[in-house]
Design goal:
157 residues, globular, single chain, mainly beta
């Protein structure tokens, strides 16, 4: 079991685009989701798939289990998706010795750009990049499960 400790931010600037080190095309969908737990499948670059189980609703910290799944099985399970299938491109951007994952959403969520920082440290505001906007850590509307299963947040609408 791994602990996932992350902070989420809306992205307000474009400066990060010149700092991208890598990017991954992601299609993800949920097979089940309830308060404090979810079952997600993620297909990366159309080449590999992972099943993720998440437990907890404590904002920054949750228990997470991940397992590789045969791609053919994941594609077949798309028929069992609940809610919308999320399409996004994840960009890896380094700043201040930390890795930020900047997700640019497509489809119904076009216009939404969220940066995630996974770190157990409490990073002071002065050390965060200037292109980060409002912090949405703990705001359930910006969790991927909510983006798949709920109304589109006002940052997109």
């Amino acid at each position: 079991m791994a602990k996932e400790i992350e902070r989420k931010f809306l992205v307000s600037g474009q400066e990060w685009r010149g700092l991208v080190e890598d990017k991954i095309r992601i299609r993800q969908f949920y097979l089940a989701s309830n308060t404090g737990r979810s079952v997600r499948l993620r297909i990366c670059d159309g080449a590999r798939a992972t099943l993720t189980l998440k437990f907890g609703s404590r904002g920054r910290e949750r228990d997470e289990f991940e397992y590789d799944v045969p791609l053919a099985d994941a594609l077949e399970m798309l028929d069992f998706a609940v809610g919308r299938v999320i399409e996004k491109t994840r960009h890896h951007v380094s700043h201040g010795g930390r890795l930020y994952e900047v997700d640019v959403f497509g489809g119904e969520l076009s216009g939404l750009v969220i940066a995630e920082l996974e770190t157990p440290e409490d990073v002071p505001a002065a050390e965060l990049p200037a292109w980060l906007g409002r912090e949405v850590t703990g705001d359930a509307r910006y969790y991927n499960a909510a983006l798949a299963l709920s109304d589109i947040p006002e940052a997109v609408a």
